[in-house]
Amino acid sequence: MLSTEMNDRLARVGPGTPGGELMRRYWIPFMPAGMLNEDPVQKVRLLGEDLTCYKDRSGDIGLIGNRCMHRAVDLKWGIPDEHGLRCPYHGWLYDAAGVCVEAPLEARTDMFADRLKLDAYPVKEMGGLLFAYMGPSPAPLLPPWDLFVWPNSVRQIGYVTLEANWLQCQENTGDPSHGVWLHGYLFKYALEKMDDQDRLANMSDSFMKQGVGIKDLYANETEYGMEKGVIFSKELGAESDHTSRHSTVIFPFYTEQNAAGAPWSEFQIRVPIDDYHTYHISYNCYAAPPGVEAPKQDVIPYYEVPMWDEQGRPILDAILNQDFIGWWAQGPLTDRSQENLGRTDIPVVFLRRQIDEQIQIVEDGGDPMNFFRDPATMPEILYGGGGPAEAWQNPEWASKDLGLSRNTRLQYHKGGAEWESDRFGPAVPLVAELHRRIEEVQASTKS
Ligand code: FES
Ligand SMILES: [Fe+2]
After folding, report:
1. Whose CA is nearest to atom 4 of ligand 1?
2. What is the mean pLDDT of residues 269-293?
3. Single pTM value for the model
4. CATH number of 146-390: 1.10.10, 3.90.380, 2.60.40, 1.20.1260?
5. Ligand 1 in contact with 67 (CB < 6 A)?
6. Which of 56, 104, 239, 318 is found 20 to 30 A from 231 (Cα to Cα)?
């Protein structure tokens, strides 16, 4: 349980709020870069601010306030100029620093040119995503988190706008036991309601089995975030005494499933639009192991992950969609003063404390976790979980049993994608081709 004050401190993200000030210390991914090729002027809402992102005719990208300073026209309808964006109404021109540099119908602009400046934020591109920095200067380095930069891979970017505060989404990563019900029993229930006998017959019981023999949960701070998992006990019914590590948390809003170099890996990025909405990015990287060449992509493709079916009911027969519904169903900004936590929430409590501590560091004038300044100490690839997916980088991978036959995430060429939300994405045929090549190498090594 949290007090209402603490709930607001951690969850709210508008300008001047404690959580919002923390968020303003990070480069925040806000859009697939490819979207500007489709329409060079896009509406963006980030940390409670309405903005316009544009690519001008010289190819430079700007992110500026959305209301023209003349008479408040929404610059989403603006015209890209050689350098900057023009308001469609009377042609006032704004550069990437937000400065109004021209008012073509005015005889004298020297009267106001100096003081007319919209909010403006620097933008960088990495891994097919655009990132904005909305905090104090100088901006930190843009960290090359592994999935954004790992070579020889297929990628795709899924996005969805959720009516749910970002922290609800991120707390899901501090919750390693939810899969039993949300991805196990709920999945089964959804397939029953759809009368999908095929998938019911093929459904793995691995999620549901994780509900048996839970003794405790653990959570520890790591260099870039936290690690957590479930401790199982044979005495309580588990197959053996063992510990199962859950996905990686990269502070403040990333979750990493698997690691770079694995045939399937994913960043789930919980981008705060405002206090009540999250722009959720599922960033998939399907890496080729040594000796296999991934199909080429010129632009990283993107897609909106569908959330509702034709009847307006939530789509529940895909894993990430089940998470979406879990977060959304907690309400736009969940009231944590009313919750009742159990032992399975230990990592959630850890995650909240970590956010509170990092907010405090910012309040005290310091640099929070994952704020990088020194290019000399920045590696080419930053591994959120500590390193690449080792087993798959072993040159001998093809002769080892790495679960190729039983893990649906390596079987997209045989319909494995049908369990996942990334099945809606445009790169799935390429991923299927990659998985086919992987299987071919493995088969030839074993024969
Ligand atoms: S309203 Fe934008 S130029 Fe007039
Ligand atoms: Fe989940």
Report:
1. 90
2. 96
3. 0.96
4. 3.90.380
5. no
6. 318
